[in-house]
Design goal:
The protein is mainly β. About 15% of the residues lie in helices and about 40% in strands. It has four helices and 17 strands. The strands form four sheets. A five-stranded mixed β-sheet has the order 2-8-7-4-5, with no helix packed on it.
């Protein structure tokens, strides 16, 4: 039998620098199973993809669940009052697979819920949780917070400011002493600022100048919702200051 002539190409193949015919066929067959196939006369469909590529496509299209907003219609209320009903509203970036309000399972189509017959007298927080098709869970909270007010305005000079006097001033519910307000004090009128003693001593700036106010009295003040606590009352040293912006710190 004549010996086969060893060609340069065969020698290279033997050194595994090039694929031989059998190896090339195997490679084509292996890759052929991985790529997208399109039947003649039709567009590609999901069935034209292998599981591996379906997963890649799914990963590219996946958008994690998010709670875009979660709020209530009360937010801040005066200490001493009672919240008997509250409406919660929320929004998702997509429909979740499951959702809960605290420990209560929610219909995933719901985006609002009214809680009636409540008797909320102290700070209350609700937690909304949502889980998507990949079991990613996110949470968001909303709360009702009870605060007392700070009061400001103008009035004639009085030696005995009391609860009734403070209640006639303008009220703002807040948790600290900082406030900026603008009022106009006419002849015979002083500027007043009253706030819970627990908020601390107040410093004032009027028209760019520090000072100009004195604490004139500390009283046991009862707010419009029936809560009583110690209040400090400050008064401008001068009357008839005209229109002024007062910065309280």
């Amino acid at each position: 039998m004549p010996r086969k002539k060893v060609t340069k190409a065969a020698a290279l193949a033997a050194g595994k620098k090039y694929l031989d015919q059998e190896g090339l066929a195997h490679l084509v067959q292996k890759n052929d199973a991985r790529y997208v196939h399109q039947e003649e006369g039709k567009g590609l469909s999901q069935n034209d993809f292998t599981d591996e590529y379906k997963k890649i496509v799914d990963d590219l299209n996946y958008k994690p669940i998010a709670i875009d907003s979660f709020a209530n219609n009360k937010n801040t209320v005066e200490i001493g009052s009672t919240v008997t009903d509250v409406t919660l509203t929320w929004a998702y970036n997509k429909k979740p697979k499951s959702a809960k309000l605290d420990n209560e399972v929610l219909d995933v189509n719901l985006t609002t819920k009214t809680l009636a017959g409540q008797s909320i007298k102290t700070n209350k927080t609700w937690t909304l949780s949502a889980t998507d098709e990949r079991d990613k869970t996110v949470t968001k909270t909303t709360a009702v917070t009870f605060l007392n007010g700070v009061y400001w305005g103008v009035a004639e000079n009085t030696l005995n400011p009391d609860t009734g006097f403070v209640l006639k001033l303008t009220k703002g519910l807040q948790a600290n002493k900082a406030k900026t307000f603008t009022v106009t004090a006419s002849e015979g009128q002083h500027i007043y600022y009253a706030l819970p003693t627990r908020y601390g001593e107040v410093t004032f700036n009027v028209g760019g100048f520090d000072g100009g106010f004195t604490k004139v009295k500390t009283i046991e003040f009862t707010n419009a919702s029936g809560h009583t606590e110690s209040y400090d009352i400050y008064k401008s040293d001068n009357e008839n200051l005209g229109k002024q912006t007062v910065v309280c710190k």
